[in-house]
Fold this sequence. Notes:
Layout: E1 2-10, H1 15-18, H2 22-27, E2 34-43, E3 48-55, H3 58-70, E4 81-91, E5 106-114, H4 119-136, E6 141-145, E7 152-159, H5 162-174, E8 187-197
Amino acid sequence: MIYDLTILALLPNTLGAVMPVLPDTYASFSSTGKPxxxxxxxxxxxNRFAFLTAYDDLDAxxxxxxxxxxxxxxxxxxxxxxxxxxxxFKPLSFAKPIVPGAYGxxxxxxxxxxxxxxxAETQAAWAKIIDRRHxxxxxxxxxxxxxxxxxxxxxIWPYQTIESRMIARIQAGKEGIWPPPGGSGKLTNxxxxxxxxxxxxxxx
Length: 204
């Protein structure tokens, strides 16, 4: 399985024009993949939407990338776009398949940049504690980028409330499993953003 995370950044003061169109954008987001979720950034860089799409394999993803390169307005909101980023990921060894459902509506996207050849050590540290961490609050996925450039690890955590996030992180810290022991040695940058699932998202 390959996951694509596409971030659509809007120009200022365009939300009113874009929101009515986004359900159609999501429904026809990919010609070869399965849309899983669409999320609006609540805390972080604003006026941004994250679209998560699943592909059976790399060939299916590349076919969609080729379509995007030749389409005039693939997302149907071209006049309102400030920037678009597409990043492909493979799930880590312990990550379960993403199953659409109601887990949020709050989704924390944590993006860690890894030092060269740092994934193996980081993944091994996470594997030791992830079952217990998942019991405290579920992990939607943890995945590593397969694009050129510094490798990114993105883990996504759904929460029903902001308070439940705080409670879960405090509990994991008390048990000594968060941050994962030995899991920070190969990290060079850490970023956290909070997104809210849109009404038309399969992940809610």
